[in-house]
Amino acid sequence: MGLYILAINPGSTSTKISIFDGENEVFTENIVHNYEELKKFKKVIDQQDYRYKAVINALKERRFPLDKIDVIVARGGIMRPVRAGTYRINEKMLEDLKNAVGGEHASNVSAFIAHRLAKEKGIPAYVVDPVSVDEMEDVARISGLFGIDRKSLSHALNIRRVVYKIVQELGKTPTELNFIVAHLGGGISIAAIEKGRMVDVESSNCQGPFSPERSGGLPILELVELCYSGKYTKEEIKRKLIQEGGLYSYLGTKDVKEVEERAQNGDKKSALLLDAMIYQIAKGIGEMATVLKGEVDFIVLTGGIARSERICDAISERVEFIAPVRRIPGEEEMKALAEAVCRVMKGEEEVLCYGEEFQYV
Ligand SMILES: Nc1ncnc2c1ncn2[C@@H]1O[C@H](COP(=O)(O)OP(=O)(O)O)[C@@H](O)[C@H]1O
Ligand SMILES: CCCC(=O)OP(=O)(O)O
User: Fold this and answer.
1) In terms of residue numbers, what domain contains 38?
2) Ligand 1 midpoint to CA 50 (Å)
3) Which of 71, 91, 256, 335 keeps 20 to 30 A from 302, CA to CA?
């Protein structure tokens, strides 16, 4: 195709970059950052210069000339609620990410890296299916307490990618089928996709099942007691819920593979925790089945944990009465980014303008 795409996807401790030639991967590099270095930055957004330099160095080490890059695409962070799609990076987006209008997330920094390099090279830069994709029905926004709304935060990029993958395989379009997709990684998101639209979603950042590192929904009064116990600052509580919650809080590890091994070697606590996570994931899928009024074509299990056959079988046992379960292990976020750019370049998908409309707000 001769269209060189740089894809950028920052995580909490690493930044993944890929070069694609059209839809074909040329190489991928996972730049692992020094955790002590990252800890020096007060806010995620303060890491932009550090991560930018790391990206440039990685490209230089790979001997890939920066001048060869035609277009840059990045994982979108938590900006204002937006509909799914590909957005050109603009000043409004950067301002919102800088102010963390929707909260802090590693991916908030990616638009800055992409924008800076794109500006230097005079090439376009986009983000695709940001974490804050919000296509929820109004009824799904009500939390039960005035002043607190349910939010749509999810692994939208990979969730939409697996939906595309299945509909393409079947020779159909997303608007013909309904899905429940459970992204099972360090964080977990469970989404109901009705005819291509993500009408409801739960993520372990806010509610729903606990994950390897996040607490998910908690008993509310006990949480209030914890917050006012005087033992923790606000930042420490947030860290406890999002980075040091879930399996980690019980077992001191976020590695599900290790927890499985411990359980297989007779550790009862690990076995119980694993069962509890499976139980909560299945419950979340069941909830989403009610959102779709039982009209579910496929349940999809994806993300790193979906590599475990045992876990997927245990989830399936509880949910396969709803719909057939498909397993798509791992994530293909880099490919999803490159494919979105190719669709835009071929004129198959329109580029959306961030800030023009926030129709789901
Ligand atoms: N073969 C496997 N069996 C069970 N769990 C796995 C396996 N491979 C990866 N995992 C787990 O997947 C989780 C990470 O998922 P991943 O989607 O890669 O993470 P992230 O959310 O950081 O992108 C970790 O808890 C890891 O232990
Ligand atoms: C808030 C949902 C997206 C998310 O948690 O992404 P990571 O697991 O990559 O942090």
Assistant:
1) 4-135+333-353
2) 26
3) 71
